[in-house]
Amino acid sequence: MSGEIHWMSALELIDAYRSKKLSPVEVTTAVLDRIEAVNPKINAIVTLTADLAMDSARASEKAYMDGTAAAIEGVPITIKDLIVTKGIRTTCGSLLFADHVPDVDAVLVERIRQAGGVILGKTNVPEFGLVAVTDNSVFGPTLNPWDLAKTVGGSSGGAAGGVVAGFGPLAVGNDGGGSIRVPCSLCGTFGLKPHFARVPSWPHLIHGWETMNHEGPITRTVGDAALLLDVMAGPDDRDRLSLPASGIDWSSAHQGGIEGLKVAYTSDLAAGAVDPEVARVTREAALAFADLGCEVVEEDPGIFDMSGDLTIMVIEEAAAAQADRLEEAKEKMYPLYRPFLDMAPVFPAVDFVKVLYHREDLWDILRPFFEKYDLLLTPTTACRVRPQGRRDARARLNRRQRGLAGLLGSVHLPVQLHRAAGGLSPVRVHRDRVAGRAAGCRTSLRRADSAQGRGGVREGEAVGGQAPGAVDGTGEPQESNPYRKFTRMPCKTF
């Protein structure tokens, strides 16, 4: 079993702990060994807390012996480097905070510690999470475990890359403009962007994204994501926007079928230019829902392009966050972002306010659409996985579909990794707030779990089929059946 430990799901590990087949110390040691062997090749974890992890594992072992084990007791987990962690370096991928060690935990980190999670360290991000490519001046780029020449996306690129490489079953990411959706899709992990403020977001190392940031789980199975959401979700007065308690046990609510749901799909949401192969894969994925008992209809909700709104929000908030250290920021920030600081004055305040109005206009379009349909399937990105370091116009097309979703505050799940003519092609599902915020998240989790089950891979299975990894020279997953695309496929060989 020791050779497969790093592929085990959180739920499998907990069962193994309870039955005394494995111990938290044994598992943490195995995962740390995996990180030591593979992380130098992909650079997913940038601050490793091995000693803290082993101390936590020993405490978890005692908790199981004493009968006091908490929800994720002894399960290895990583935290995105935009999220503050008491006593653990938090850099936001910026030279401005290269040696910063917070004296407080984020609310979600407090809850993870209280629930017995074994924190392995912090995962890489683009500086302040500003773009969908994980690279920065402090640690450099994170590489895709499937193909070291390709990007992992961003901004939760280190989190998604680490999960797919076997660096523990659980990771925490966050998402405002695609930061969970994009890397999960490009790496083939499961990611959940819950409703806005379902998981409290406090404190912020710097301001920015306050009206768009969603904290959420990145995992290899739907069940693990629901488990971690149970731990992290719930109100906290320190986040004035946090939602009331849902009263839902996500670990139970995600189970069950989705027969009878009405599913709409479109391959070109907001009239964006989409790679033909991505469009084809989206259609295949959507039609597979008919086999799950859903009514599937091709229909575009007719929304307008909000990629410009996202650009305004990012540039204005980035500049405002650095206003007190503007000259230092211009000197130290990642070269790609420095123009943001000079571009901010170009946009008058009225443009920023118009973004708020556009959000309301978007809601007026989507509200009646989601009274008609339960789910909407679209591509997560408009193009296939790009080479690391390449920032061309085609890759920027991602903003058109990601922007409107980030601005609305709704539920999204990237669900597919598909081999597509020279690249990996992702699909996502949307579930909006019409049926109630908690109900929408529950429906989305159940849908994803049904699709994963339809793939013929048992929940918690380490790796299905024979999926080659980057080091053996192939770099892309192989599919054994048409529903394989709905399962997470961690990279097995290095």
Summarize the structure in words:
- The protein has 494 residues and is α/β, with parallel strands linked by helices.
- The chain has a single domain (2-486), classed as Alpha-Beta Complex (Amidase signature (AS) enzymes), CATH 3.90.1300.
- Helices cover 37% and strands 13% of the residues.
- It contains 16 helices and 15 strands.
- It has helices spanning 10-18, 24-42, 50-66, 107-114, 157-164, 181-187, 222-232, 250-253, 276-291, 307-321, 326-332, 338-343, 349-372, 393-396, 398-408, 437-454, and strands spanning 45-48, 76-80, 118-123, 143-144, 147-151, 170-175, 190-191, 214-219, 262-265, 295-298, 375-379, 411-414, 418-420, 423-425, 427-431.
- Strands 1-3-2-6-8-7 form a six-stranded mixed sheet, sandwiched between helices. It has a five-stranded mixed sheet with strand order 10-9-11-15-12. A two-stranded antiparallel ribbon has the order 4-5.
- β2, α4 and β3 (118-123) form a beta-alpha-beta unit.
- The longest helix is centred in the last third of the chain and has 24 residues, at 349-372.
- Residues 392-397, 416-425, 433-437, 455-469 and 471-494 have low confidence and may be disordered.
